[in-house]
Specification:
The protein is of the alpha+beta class. It is 37% helix and 20% strand. 44% of the residues are buried.
Length: 363
């Protein structure tokens, strides 16, 4: 922000109750890119000529029978060969996540939600980020234990996972968008940490000291080799840089994405069976997928179909949202932008610029 009057005006509109939540939205989009990159890496690795080396990793992948859980009350499949994948990033503190200083102690929630659309031809992709604080109508769902969960209006999107499970999240997204999800993939924070550690770290350069007590990151100005834990702190840092808003964090996350992509390319990971095995081992242990993808063979087949997609060229769009009139700490889908966005995905068309504008972002 270069104009002091504009800065003061924006600060005046923030309150302790809602300012942090509003600043978080942009950061979730960029974190989603990191989750998305992790998914693409393991899919491409599995899709290589030596994918048979990793068949012993099948047992790592957990599967969910989405079709059985939801039934036939779903949108129609795309009339083209395009694909839609719901990707969730889990913020659970269970297991390996316990030491990462993030998430909910009581149980996992969907910290990041991305609808990844791969148009016909599979040479490009777009990822639509659904803000976790979006108020939605949750449809009636059946949990894995057979328990029925009644429909409810104005529920926070990221609460659905912990209450009713992943199939209900898929059903909610399909109800919200009218878009059929062909696949479901979930990865937790520990999986991302494991990816960076398996690579051997990522090198970043910062031009100022960063000390963020919230994320736990402490870096001096200069070049650093970050391990998995430090990388998580790096992409989550907000208070330790700039004016404490999300602007600083967005810049760090974009910088980290470029550094991670550069590291993958430099090490030729996809051409190294040993290195790729380490990555695949970390990520498959952290993956939960729909039953149609829950094996290395199926992941390999899907990975090969995505060989033309360059993760560096993927477009990430936030679902257009507006601040809720009743509760300014929450957002709701903005119309007509949201409908325009979902229609473009349903018809496998280019997303119009008008559908990328979000009133909650002042755009």
């Amino acid at each position: 922000m270069t104009h002091s009057a504009t800065s003061e005006s924006r600060r005046a509109r923030r309150s302790p109750a809602n300012g942090g939540r509003r600043r978080q939205q942009g950061g979730k989009r960029r974190w989603g890119r990191i989750v998305l990159l992790s998914l693409v890496v393991v899919l491409l690795a599995a899709g290589g000529t030596g994918y048979w080396l990793y068949r012993d990793l099948d047992g790592n992948i957990k599967g969910v029978d989405i079709d059985k859980a939801i039934g036939d009350d779903r949108p129609a499949k795309l009339p083209t060969s395009g694909q839609n994948i719901l990707i969730l990033g889990s913020d659970s503190r269970a297991g390996a996540n316990a030491s990462l200083g993030t998430g909910n102690v009581a149980g996992a929630r969907s910290d990041t939600a991305l609808v990844m659309h791969i148009p016909q031809g599979r040479t490009r992709a777009v990822a639509v980020s659904i803000p976790r604080d979006t108020l939605v109508t949750r449809p009636a769902c059946t949990k894995t234990d057979g328990t029925e969960v009644a429909s409810a209006k104005r529920v926070m999107f990221n609460s659905i996972y912990s209450l009713a499970g992943p199939a209900c999240v898929v059903k909610t997204v399909e109800s919200l968008s009218g878009v059929r999800m062909d696949h479901y993939v979930e990865i937790d924070f520990a999986g991302f940490k494991g990816l960076v550690d398996a690579i051997g770290g990522v090198t970043v350069t910062v031009d100022q000291d960063i000390h963020d007590s919230s994320s736990g990151l402490n870096l001096t100005a200069g070049t650093h080799r970050l391990d998995g834990t430090q990388s998580l702190q790096f992409v989550r840092t907000r208070h330790g840089i700039g004016d404490g808003s999300d602007l600083g964090r967005i810049g760090l996350q974009q910088q980290f994405m470029l550094a991670l992509l550069s590291e993958i390319k430099k090490q030729d990971l996809l051409g190294s069976p040993t290195k790729t095995y380490k990555i695949a081992n970390e990520l498959t242990a952290a993956l939960t997928t729909d039953s149609d993808l829950a094996s290395l063979t199926k992941l390999a087949e899907f990975g090969r179909s995505m060989n033309g997609v360059d993760p560096a060229d993927m477009e990430t769009i936030m679902l257009p949202v507006a601040y809720d009139k009743v509760d300014p700490n929450r957002v709701v889908a903005a119309e007509p932008q949201a409908s325009q966005l979902w229609k473009a995905i349903r018809t496998d068309d280019d997303i119009p610029e008008s559908a990328k504008k979000s009133p909650a972002k002042g755009g």
